[in-house]
Design goal:
With 1161 residues, the chain is mainly beta. Among the domains are: 43-127, Phage tail protein beta-alpha-beta fold (3-Layer(bab) Sandwich); 135-220, Carboxypeptidase-like, regulatory domain (Immunoglobulin-like); 236-346, Ferric Hydroxamate Uptake Protein, Chain A, domain 1. It has a 22-stranded antiparallel β-barrel. Strands 15-20-21-18-19 form a five-stranded mixed sheet. A four-stranded antiparallel sheet has the order 8-7-10-11, with no helix packed on it. It comes from Petrimonas mucosa. Keywords: Cell outer membrane, Ion transport, Iron, Iron transport, Membrane, Receptor, TonB box, Transmembrane, Transmembrane beta strand, Transport. Pfam families: CarbopepD_reg_2 (PF13715), Plug (PF07715), STN (PF07660), TonB_dep_Rec_b-barrel (PF00593).
């Protein structure tokens, strides 16, 4: 095998380079075209030949032949009446204005297509000022007016446009809202600003005018994107939709993913962190888990399912479709788990550069601690005494003084304060017809465990080209790369954290020679070197945790490329629009792990090895949509027809080799290995899907709303005869507050709504489920005699699927009913929403092994059997108000309750009775702890109940059945277990269903205030009713396996003088099975309330814009501080309660303190 010249991707790397070259060429060409378009707009050439024309008249001529609009500020009107002669051939606007205004005290500034002409005090007229009678008369007819523009709270409106109606004479308000303008008699001022209702004010004889603008609630009302072109106002929603209030503010938090950003924001959306590793991503469950196979959430980014998000700062809005009615239009793509729609920022008119970046420090909190050398000897002596066995002489400090000195706190060695930083730079360039946005993002997240990290970079480009009033072309390009290095912390023996606990603190972290890694040496290394070891076996063979974290050349790299080209044709007829999109994507990645040869005491690595794996996938998506939206009097109608299709395939490869003579990094290739295993490769797919979609919507008089949709999906991986599914939905709403009979000044909105919908999920049906088989005759389907789809004659040797195919297999289907109530009160300051839902998932996909003959030679076929229910209630509350002119504040809270149960488990046992789903959860010598039965929730804890600790031998002897001890080996200090089946002994038949990890309630509280330019916000988030199996207690608090070190908490074990302890007595043996019994002693309440975030922002824009240059540019600047995971209140005794229900010392969630800055120029 030849040495690879590029580690990043041995799978046809040249193809990837070609793609990148084409993409970068398109990106470069688009930016050039944008700049060319912008330059053309700014440098439109004029040919003018005018004699004895005023400056105003010249400007009006330029307005006629361009998109420019001239505004004469203040008393610049008077000077603009000067008459000039002008002859210009193909000159741009700057050249003409420089000539036109020479010899006057007038200057100008160009803001996009707006030209402001103003009097410049620093200029002096070159010519003398000999005014004619006409000019003096015109001056006498003008008068100077001043005024101020404020909003409803009296706050100045900066940059409001003041225009003399019917003319181009105008100005803008300054930083304090003041303006000054020279006008004629009996004029009307036109006053406007974005987001406010335009006002017209008659001047009359007044010289001072103060104006109060009112917010345009129609324009400011939030518009929600629901998918496939449907957009509606929040108050008009008839489906159950969650809206993230302010994603731009959330992006200031030091979080690493969009999933983390959503935690606590929307009721019914449960975000569960999978530990605090920089390589992990939180799991999202919407309204309860509906399948034992998982029902993942579909992410739709800018209308494209599965498109990536490179930067949190790019997000403009996030909408969660919680009910099946709103998600049904995505059909089986949604996976029955809900849909999250993300809209990213697009290019805007004008030229700007913006930067958003933060830097923070991570620290681990509530970290478990191990015994120091003196404490470990004490623990070892007590444990041996309680077991009735002698203590090895190596633990005698008189014989082995080395063992009694603390040298290394291993927990301090593996944990660190780690840096986290994130940067996003955006270049914006846009005109009326062509808008471009180019974003560059980079981040580095060093984990709190040494040697772990995640770093990424991304490039985004979005271009919108309006070819004419009918046709618009869009291009969306995204490239991302990530490098990460994680570590196993869950393994009961080789996990990094448990290894740090197991290691004696008397050992050095490195050999005394300074090279290599120290092992579990419990003697003086120099003595061992001279005379050998006298006590080599007194401890154990634990791996040095620093070796686990740093010794291997191990990392993982992934590249992603995603591009979407779209075309929109509008106004075919009024309200009719056609939209077409094509997306192509490819992802590639590789994993490398070179394990060095290490002569570590106790646990050496006698040989070196190289592990290498790589993959590449690619696919495409198409969407063609025709929409019609029209309003007739009080009737608003909408309709949609669409088709979608997609394709996906993946290829992968892996290999291992060992025995490298030279471990140099440039020689870590397979051709330098003396031994290597046969490489393996695989192919996933190809998989293809097609869908037909339709939707109609209707509303009447802003009172009655209805939407109905239907989608048919065709799935390539399902059997041909049954490969389609229909997913209908309907929603309706009634705005009672808009009825004539409803007259309340207190209630601004009262709306009831209801919905019903159906979505699909392919669950465990893999891409290769219906793969063809290879025979000497070619590709054929498998024989019907094995339950397959068709007869086929085979000759010679052939390979066949390991699982039988079911020709009737179809989707898991989830249907959901939702009823909701929305209320806005007190001038829209208070908003309240309630939702009740009933979610039924049926036709569960699972294997039916009962009655399946083993002689067939293939695994049981997948069948559609079973049903899971989720029923719940959600509530959301929000209040926002202003106190005076400078203070505003907000409060919000949300809570959700969900009950999950298996209504029909589907599978049966050999005798025809209901079966169960047996799960995992085993740890060291503790067997499985999960099992699901009909009538209970998914993934129930199936354990033996722990009843407390025997306080005396007599109490243990009195725990009997028919005079016989139920726990014959129990003594004082041992755990007491419930004999659930009453047979007089403790065994697997005494297991009970004792709860599950899913919380009953999730909730969050948010609040904040703004004062002048200072803003503060905070959030509390929590769960109630969750349980977790803290399996690490086996290793931390039990001394039944090896002479390892333990947690300091073991010193609180039960003893005759410490009878209130919940930890069983210390013992080298475990005759009672205190630690090996799968009991509820491991089970703990994992409810918690977490101070999730506090963010303080100071806006420096007002100060910055005192400089007219920054005011003209519309520049802005703000700085912010944010703290994440500040503290947690919980009864859970582990490092962190957010474990997902099973904890063997997961990578802990960390506290982050960060500083950031946002700048736009």
């Amino acid at each position: 095998m030849n040495k690879s010249t590029n580690e990043a991707n041995p799978l046809k790397f040249t193809n990837f380079i070609k793609i990148m070259k084409l993409t970068l060429f398109f990106l470069f060409f688009s930016i050039l075209l944008s700049q060319a378009t912008n330059t053309f707009s700014q440098e439109t050439e004029f040919t003018l030949h005018l004699k004895s024309a005023t400056i105003k008249e010249v400007c009006k001529e330029m307005e006629k032949s361009s998109n420019y609009r001239f505004i004469f500020e203040g008393n610049a009107n008077r000077a603009a009446n000067k008459k000039v002669d002008l002859s210009a051939n193909s000159q741009n606007i700057e050249e003409i204005l420089d000539e036109l205004l020479s010899g006057t005290d007038l200057s100008y500034r160009v803001l996009d297509n707006q030209v402001v002409v103003y009097r410049d005090r620093e200029k002096r007229e070159v010519k003398g000022v000999n005014r004619s009678v006409t000019t003096q008369t015109a001056q006498q007819q003008k008068k100077q007016i001043t005024g101020r523009v404020v909003d409803a709270q009296g706050i100045p409106v900066i940059g409001a446009n003041i225009l003399e109606k019917g003319t181009s004479n105008g100005t803008v308000t300054d930083m304090d809202g003041y303006f000054s303008l020279s006008v004629g008699d009996n004029v009307v001022l036109h006053i406007s600003y974005i987001g406010y209702i335009t006002q017209e004010v008659a001047v009359g004889n007044r010289t001072n005018i103060n104006v109060q603008l009112e917010e345009d609630t129609q324009r400011l009302e939030e518009v929600i994107v629901l998918g496939y072109g449907l957009a509606t106002k929040r108050k008009d929603l008839s489906a159950s939709v969650g809206i993230v209030a302010d994603p731009e503010s959330l992006a200031m938090r030091p979080v690493t993913s969009t999933q983390s950003m959503l935690q606590g924001q929307i009721p019914g959306v449960t975000v569960q962190a999978n530990g605090g590793s920089p390589t992990s991503t939180p799991n999202i469950v919407i309204r309860g888990q509906g399948s034992q196979n998982g029902d993942g959430v579909l992410w739709v980014v800018d209308g494209v399912p599965g498109a990536p998000i490179n930067s949190l700062a790019d997000i403009e809005s996030i909408v969660v479709l919680k009910d099946a009615a709103s998600a049904a239009i995505y059909g089986a793509q949604s996976g029955a788990g809900g849909v999250i729609i993300v809209t990213t920022k697009k290019g805007q008119k004008g030229v700007s550069v913006s930067y958003d970046g933060l830097m923070g420090v991570r620290t681990a909190t509530n970290v478990v601690q191990s015994l120091n050398a003196e404490q470990q000897i004490k623990m070892r002596q007590l444990s041996s005494a309680n077991s009735g066995v002698g203590l090895d002489a190596g633990w005698d400090v008189n014989l082995n003084p080395y063992i009694g000195v603390t040298r290394t706190n291993w927990i301090d060695e593996i944990f660190r304060s780690a840096l986290y930083h994130r940067h996003n730079v955006v270049l914006n360039s846009g005109t009326d017809t062509f808008k471009n946005r180019v974003g560059f993002s980079a981040s580095k997240d060093d984990g709190v465990l040494v040697g772990t990290y995640n770093k990424s970079m991304g490039i985004n480009y979005r271009g919108d080209l309006q070819i004419n009033k009918w046709v618009k072309i869009t291009e969306d390009f995204r490239f991302g790369q990530s490098d990460d290095r994680g570590v196993d912390t869950d393994s009961g023996y080789s996990g990094a954290i448990i290894s740090a606990i197991y290691m004696p603190q008397s050992a050095d972290k490195h050999y005394y020679t300074g090279s290599g890694f120290g092992g579990v040496t419990t003697e003086d290394p120099e003595y061992i070197a001279k005379y050998g070891s006298n006590y080599a076996s007194i401890h154990g063979d634990v791996i040095n945790p620093l070796r686990i974290l740093t010794a291997d050349d191990r990392y993982n790299r992934n590249n992603s490329f995603f591009t979407t080209t779209g075309m929109e044709i509008g106004n075919i007829v009024t309200g009719l629009k056609f939209n077409s999109k094509f997306s192509f994507y490819t992802n590639s990645g590789f994993y490398k792990n070179f394990s060095h040869m290490i002569t570590e005491v106790g646990k050496p690595n006698a040989s070196n090895s190289l592990e290498y794996s790589t993959y590449r996938n690619q696919g495409w998506k198409t969407e063609n949509t025709l929409t019609f939206d029209r309003t007739f009097d009080k009737h608003t109608v909408g309709a949609l027809l669409s088709t979608t299709s997609d394709y996906y395939s993946q290829r992968g490869f892996s290999a291992t080799g060992s025995t490298f003579a030279d471990e140099s990094k440039n020689l870590q290739y397979f051709n330098f290995a003396e031994a290597w295993n046969k490489p393996s490769d695989y192919m996933t797919g190809p998989d293809a899907n097609v869908a037909l979609i339709s939707r109609i919507s209707y509303s009447f008089d802003d009172r009655y709303f209805m939407t109905a949709s239907w989608r048919r999906d065709y799935a390539g991986r399902l059997p041909d005869a049954n490969n389609y599914g229909d997913f209908p939905a309907i929603t309706a709403a009634w705005k009672i507050s808009n009825e004539a009979f409803f007259n309340s000044e207190l209630i601004n909105l009262l709306k009831v709504r209801g919905s019903f919908g159906r979505v699909g999920n392919l669950g465990s049906v893999g891409y290769n489920y219906k793969s063809q088989t290879l025979s000497s005759a070619g590709w054929n389907n498998q024989s019907q005699q094995y339950g397959f789809e068709s007869d086929a004659g085979y000759t010679g040797t052939f390979y066949y699927n390991g699982k039988a195919l079911n020709p009737k297999l179809t989707w898991e289907t989830s249907e959901q009913f939702d009823a909701g109530l929305d209320i806005d009160m007190f001038a829209n300051r208070l908003s309240i929403s309630f939702d009740f839902y009933n979610k039924r998932t049926y036709n569960l996909i699972q294997s039916q092994s009962s009655g399946w003959p083993a002689s067939i030679g293939v695994s049981p076929m997948l069948v559609n059997l079973g049903e899971i229910m989720n029923r719940g209630f959600e509530a959301q509350f929000g209040w926002k108000d202003r106190i005076g002119k400078e203070w505003s504040y907000f409060l919000s809270a949300n809570a959700a309750y969900n009950k999950n149960w298996v209504a029909d488990i589907g599978v049966t046992t050999g005798d025809g009775s209901k079966g169960v789903w047996t799960g995992g959860g085993a740890y060291r010598q503790v067997p499985y702890i999960y099992q699901t039965k009909e009538g209970g929730p998914l993934n129930q804890f199936y354990m033996i109940k722990y009843l407390g600790i025997f306080q005396s031998d007599a109490e243990a002897q009195a725990y009997t059945k028919d005079g016989v001890m139920i726990q014959p080996n129990a003594k004082a200090g041992d755990l007491k277990f419930e004999d659930y089946n009453g047979d007089g002994k403790i065994d697997a038949l005494d297991r009970q269903y004792v709860g599950n990890a899913t919380p009953d309630w999730t909730y969050a509280f948010s609040g904040g205030f703004s004062w002048k330019d200072l803003t503060l916000s905070l959030m509390l988030q929590g769960v109630q009713g969750a349980q977790a199996a803290y399996m690490a207690k086996y290793s931390l608090l039990g001394d039944v396996e090896g002479n390892f070190n333990r947690s300091v908490d073991i010193l609180d074990a039960w003893s005759p003088t410490n009878t209130d302890s919940k930890i069983p007595r210390l013992s080298r043996s475990d005759p009672n099975g205190n630690f090996t019994t799968p009991s509820t002693w491991y089970l703990e309440d994992a409810s918690y309330l977490r101070f999730k975030n506090i963010t303080v922002t100071y806006d420096l824009t007002r100060m910055m814009r005192k400089c007219s240059h920054f005011l003209d540019r519309g520049s802005s600047l703000s700085v912010y501080f944010s703290g994440e995971n500040l503290f947690t209140i919980t009864p859970y005794s582990g490092m962190d309660p957010e474990t997902g229900g099973w904890d063997a010392l997961k990578y802990p969630v960390s506290r982050v303190l960060s500083l950031g800055v946002k700048l736009t120029y």
